[in-house]
Design brief:
globular; 23% strand; 6 helices; 6-stranded antiparallel sheet; single chain; 192 residues; alpha+beta; 8 strands
Length: 192
């Protein structure tokens, strides 16, 4: 008997299997081959967001378009209302219980990733309807998708480097202090 092969997206598996667990450290990822393809070939949405008063604003802009500077309000992405984008992304972000804090943090640190995971994996361009900071009128901006490596280069240029792990010996206490700032694998991989 030949049965059809049904392929389920990572988004589907995360929703079905990991969200009922209610643990932000539980998720399903891509195969190593797909992850490598994604890091080398995907053209990603070049910004992260933050939420204030139920509106979505650019937190970090990795594109060359200055209209999307910090504080520009995002209304739609490829004609999808930003509230719908947030709704779809929220269903793919593992979180502790029903807490929204992880989802809001993900917007600031990995919106591009979850947009790629839940809505559009890769695109050469993205159409953004926005209101630039300080403006009253909406404009439509077409952004080029950027590679993961380029996005990381631009993100790292915007922030002060903080080591993911630090150890100091305190002579007066005859003790050591170990500080672990994050458990993000990519930050440990880039730390020397």
């Amino acid at each position: 008997i030949n049965l059809p092969i049904i392929k389920f997206s990572v988004d589907w598996w995360n929703t079905l299997l990991t969200f009922p667990v209610g643990c932000s450290h539980t998720s399903i990822g891509f195969s190593e081959a797909h992850e490598q393809w994604w890091q080398q070939n995907a053209l990603l949405l070049p910004f992260n967001l933050f939420v204030a008063d139920k509106k979505y604003y650019v937190y970090q802009n990795y594109s060359d378009n200055s209209a999307l500077g910090f504080g520009a309000e995002i209304l739609t992405i490829d004609r999808m209302p930003i509230s719908k984008v947030f709704e779809q992304i929220s269903s793919t972000v593992p979180s502790d219980g029903s807490s929204l804090s992880r989802i809001k943090n993900v917007l600031k640190t990995g919106f591009y990733y979850y947009y790629s995971l839940a809505i559009k994996e890769s695109a050469p361009t993205y159409s953004i309807l926005c209101i630039p900071k300080g403006a009253k009128d909406t404009i439509t901006v077409t952004l080029k998708g950027i590679s993961y490596n380029m996005l990381n280069e631009r993100r790292n240029a915007l922030k002060k480097p903080t080591p993911p792990i630090d150890f100091r010996f305190v002579d007066s206490l005859d003790a050591g202090v170990l500080k672990i700032s994050t458990f993000r694998k990519d930050l440990f991989d880039n730390y020397s």
